[in-house]
Every structure is written in structure tokens, then in C-alpha cells.
């Protein structure tokens, strides 16, 4: 099993979806995992959808360690305070997973740019791209202070060799994250900190399962989900990247989870090797 004992990780947007899957896999591998998000408490509705508290309970249930920090990453002061707390409690940050994303507040429709609501900009850029940028802004000095161990920053995004994603704002935002990772990879190369834009495939997030009236126990009954992957799949990719002593050889280069599964030899939670998802032509 891949060992990340002694490593400190932060997963932003960790209450559900890819963030939850990544946080759990990092914890299983031995990392001390901080998860941030706006969803707290354990009301009946929130238990179904997931909160940072419920994910922390899951981490502890599998023998992992971590902390949940309530943080709205659109508020710079809260992001700064979250990093300050990690610095105070741990004195280091080895793994930063920039996963916070506000782009799902509106339906991602396949319409021409001029027919799309302008609110997409705020959801995808203020609550997505800028939120990740500001997390980097406050976290990178802490990561650089631990010069002996390098580190890794991962931006979860979507990338398919620059094929158009068929929604102007979504395409622009996701490619902005790819370019952000590339720029940081250049600037952090001398520090030995790798920066990787990481693209999952067709993930069975809570939102996807709910939209198709199914759950993780019954998704096999839905024809449209046959090529889907669990959120653990991207989590296992993050673990392998974080543990790879040669990861600097791919810093700044977009990676797809399905290809990394072949390269590193891991499978999804159900034992399948799920191929890379392709944007339809």
C-alpha cells in the first residue's frame, strides 16, 4: 500500500464529490488530511449530500486522521485563516489539492455563449478559479518553507487535449486552471514542488447520482453510468502522484486519471480499470 505517513494534506471543497474521494484515499494512505468547505452540521438533508463533518467521520472510520475547517473560499480572510491554522498546528503542508468549485450552481448547458446566463462567470471564476488561486497564494509560502521535502499541488479540472467542452464558461474556467498549474509549475520548479492539473472522467458524484435517481449501490442499473468511475478513482490517482519521487518529471503537464491508472497500476474501488473519458466529437 502507498505510504504517505508524516505528510500533511489540504483538500479544498472536500465535503462531497471528488474532494470527498480524494480526502478519504489520502487518509487511507496515511496522510493527515485537512478538509475545507462551507457545508457543516449533520442535518438529515446534509447527511445525504455530505458535509466536511461527515467526511471527517468517514476518515476516522477508516483509521485516518484529519480535521475539518469551515471555510468559504470566496472570502480571502477565511482562506488565509485556514492556512494559518494548518501552519500553527502542523508547521508544514506537503499536499495541496485545489478542488473547490462553485460552477455547479447553474446547469452546465450546451448553448451558444450569447444565450448563457452571465452568472456563470461568478460561479466558475469567483467561486472556482479565483478561489483556487487565493488558496495557492496563502498556501505556497507554507509549502516553500519546508524545503527538504518538496511537495505537490493538484488542481482538479477537466482536460481532453484542448477539445472544446461545449459550454463557453466551463471550457474557459477549466482551461484557466490548467494554465494556472502550468505557470505555477514554472515558478515553483526550483523549490521541487510539482503542480499538476488532474482531469477525472465521468464521475459518480452525489449530484450525478441524484440527477439519475440512483445511488452508489445501484448505479450499475443505469445504462448511462456503465463507463463512469467512483470518486475514489481520482483519489487513488492523487495518492500515487503525491508518493511518486519522480513526479517533477510531469510537473505542469495535464494528467488524466484513466491514464495514470495504467501507469501506476491502480484500479477503481470496484476493481475496474476505467478508461479515459473522451469528449464527444
Structural overview:
The protein has helices at residues 17-28, 44-49, 52-61, 76-90, 119-145, 168-187, 206-211, 231-243, 257-264, and strands spanning 8-11, 32-37, 65-70, 95-98, 151-156, 193-199, 255-256. The chain is α/β, with parallel strands linked by helices and 281 residues long. The chain has one domain (8-264): NAD(P)-binding Rossmann-like Domain (Rossmann fold, 3-Layer(aba) Sandwich), CATH 3.40.50.720. It has a seven-stranded parallel β-sheet, sandwiched between helices. The longest helix has 27 residues, at 119-145. It is globular, with a radius of gyration of 18 Å. The mean pLDDT is 90.
Record keyword descriptors for this entry.
7 strands; Rossmann fold; 42% helix; seven-stranded parallel beta sheet; alpha/beta; 281 residues
CATH topology: Rossmann fold
CATH superfamily: NAD(P)-binding Rossmann-like Domain
Helix residue percentage: 40-55%
Number of helices: 9
Mean pLDDT: 90
Ranges with pLDDT <50 over ≥5 residues?
none
Q: What is the number of beta strands?
A: 7
Would you state the CATH class? Answer: Alpha Beta
Topology (SSEs and partners):
Blueprint: E1 8-11, H1 17-28, E2 32-37, H2 44-49, H3 52-61, E3 65-70, H4 76-90, E4 95-98, H5 119-145, E5 151-156, H6 168-187, E6 193-199, H7 206-211, H8 231-243, E7 255-256, H9 257-264
Parallel strand pairs: 1-2, 1-4, 2-3, 4-5, 5-6, 6-7
Helix pairs in contact: 1-3, 1-8, 4-5, 5-6, 8-9
Short description:
With 281 residues, the chain is an alpha/beta fold. The protein contains 9 helices and 7 strands; from the N terminus they run βαβααβαβαβαβααβα.
Amino acid at each position: 500500500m502507498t505510504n504517505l505517513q508524516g505528510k500533511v494534506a489540504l483538500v479544498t471543497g472536500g465535503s462531497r464529490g471528488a474532494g470527498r474521494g480524494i480526502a478519504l484515499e489520502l487518509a487511507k494512505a496515511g496522510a493527515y488530511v485537512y478538509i475545507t468547505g462551507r457545508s457543516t452540521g449533520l442535518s438529515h438533508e446534509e447527511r445525504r449530500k455530505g458535509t466536511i463533518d461527515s467526511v471527517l467521520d468517514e476518515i476516522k472510520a477508516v483509521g485516518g486522521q484529519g480535521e475539518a475547517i469551515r471555510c468559504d473560499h470566496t472570502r480571502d480572510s477565511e482562506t488565509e485563516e485556514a492556512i494559518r491554522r494548518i501552519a500553527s498546528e502542523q508547521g508544514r503542508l506537503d499536499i495541496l489539492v485545489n478542488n473547490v468549485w462553485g460552477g455547479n450552481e447553474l446547469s452546465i448547458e450546451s448553448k451558444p455563449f450569447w444565450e448563457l446566463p452571465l452568472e456563470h462567470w461568478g460561479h466558475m471564476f469567483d467561486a472556482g478559479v479565483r478561489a483556487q488561486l487565493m488558496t495557492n497564494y496563502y498556501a505556497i509560502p507554507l509549502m516553500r518553507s519546508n524545503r527538504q521535502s518538496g511537495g505537490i499541488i493538484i488542481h482538479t479540472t477537466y482536460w481532453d487535449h484542448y477539445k472544446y467542452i461545449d459550454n463557453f464558461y466551463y471550457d474557459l474556467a477549466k482551461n484557466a486552471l490548467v494554465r494556472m498549474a502550468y505557470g505555477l509549475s514554472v515558478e515553483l520548479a526550483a523549490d521541487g514542488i510539482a503542480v499538476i492539473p488532474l482531469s477525472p472522467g465521468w464521475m459518480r458524484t452525489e449530484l450525478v447520482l441524484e440527477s439519475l435517481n440512483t445511488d452508489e449501490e445501484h448505479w450499475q442499473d443505469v445504462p448511462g453510468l456503465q463507463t463512469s468511475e467512483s470518486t475514489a478513482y481520482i483519489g487513488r490517482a492523487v495518492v500515487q502522484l503525491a508518493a511518486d519521487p519522480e513526479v517533477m518529471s510531469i510537473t505542469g503537464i495535464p494528467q488524466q486519471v484513466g491514464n495514470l491508472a495504467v501507469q501506476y497500476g491502480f484500479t477503481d474501488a470496484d476493481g475496474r480499470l476505467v478508461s479515459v473519458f473522451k469528449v464527444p466529437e
